[in-house]
Each structure stands twice: as structure tokens, then as C-alpha cells.
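mind reviewing these C-alpha cells:
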Amino acid sequence: MTSLDGFSKVQLEDGVLRVTIATAENGTSLDGEGLVQGARALEAVGDRIGSVLLVGEGPNFCAGGNVRAFASAPVRSECVAEVAGVFHDFVRALDAVTVPVIAGVHGWAAGAGMSLVCLTDVAIGGPGTKLRPAYPSIGYTPDGGMSWTLPRIVGDARAREILITDTVLSGDEAVRLGILSRLVGDDVVQDEALRLARTLAAGPTSSYSGIKTLVRDSRSRTLAEQLDAEAESIAAAADSPVGREGVDAFIEKRRADFASVK
């Protein structure tokens, strides 16, 4: 896996853009440089990627913001606003991605870490994975979109309870609620996330993009409007290189080679 020019926290290999969002330094808190590099890379690489993989380096996926830095700042509001601005630039870039976004969630995903988990398409954890909003514990309110994504995953009432009571969610509970996709062994969380990211990167990218667009736009549509959008999308897919390869492979009883038609 090789780093992109000038980017130490972002690597691209086999169509997978790997972004390190936290390191062991400062207790696996959110890594500002990783977020800046990640946002820039997402804008720069464009069609060169087939999936995005979010990882943390150290004992946790991401333990949240650097609270010690908040405490030592001359003007705390300015410090937190700056951190939120950098974080939200990355969130916007991630939300705009049309390829699958995967996270390997080992250890804690707290605060900003949990916000990132809620943004992914597939989040893989382990029996030892734990999630926690963490914001109320320091008297703060959510950032990173958690107040928007979490209600859409678990419902408004459950989201309010989780956020207000600062609930610690086990891996099993997070899967049951739909925040994590599935659990694997703690020692293979990142390996499995990378395997999936590589598999999806070699898959029907335009199909994934269409799925993500349909799901995203369904938030503001009626069922009748969504049916029209689905009909238009599937018809376009049928005559696309990817759609042709998929159907032809099915008829010819062979494995589709989507990478050859991207």
C-alpha cells in the first residue's frame, strides 16, 4: 500500500483509498492531519478509487476529539470551532463519495469516532468494539453529523436516548441497532474491512453509485417519486458497460469482470 504524494495518512492501493482518522498519539483521538489529507485525497483521486476504508491506528478506531487540547486552548470556543470545521470538511467530502465507504472499527469508537461509523456504508466491528456518543460527558453537543445520521439509523426516540444518556453500546448491540454491520474476531477487524474494501473496489462501481444515490435521495421523496427514480436508474444501468457485462456474464454462466469495463 503506497502513500499518495505529500499524504502520509492516506494510501491508495487496489482501488482502495485508506484514510487513517486516528493514531496512537494523543490517545487515538481524532487526527486533524488525517482528516485534512483525507478530504483533499477524496477530491483529488475521483474516479481512481473503487472504495474508501476508514481505519484507526492504535488500540482504538477513534476515541473522539483531543479533550486535552480543548482544555489547554486560550479560547476554547475558537479551538473547538476550528476542529469541527476541519472535521466537517472531511464529513462533507465523505458524504459526497459515490463509492462504498467501509470502516474497520476496533476498540472504542467514541464521539467523533462514532460519528464517522454512522456515516459509513459498511462498518465491521468485533466482540470488543464499543461505541459511545461521549459528548454529554464533557458537556458538549454532537458534531460530525451524529445528530443527523443516528436518528436515521435507529429512529428519533432511540437516538435521543443514546445521545442524552451517553449510552455505551457493545458490538452486539450496535449490530442489532444497525450502526455496525457485523462482527468478526477482534484480531481480524481491520483485515476483514480491508478485504471487503478490495472486493467492492473491484465490483460494479456504477451500480454502487446508483444504489447510494437512490438511498440518499429517498430521504426527500414520496414512494411514487422513488419508483420513478428507480425505473430511470435501472434502465440506465441496463445499457451501461457494467450492466451489459453483468447480464452477459450471467447468461454465459461466467464470473462478471467488472474491472474490465470501468
About this structure: The radius of gyration is 19 Å. The mean pLDDT is 94. The domain at 205-261 is CATH 1.10.12.10 (Lyase 2-enoyl-coa Hydratase; Chain  A, domain 2).
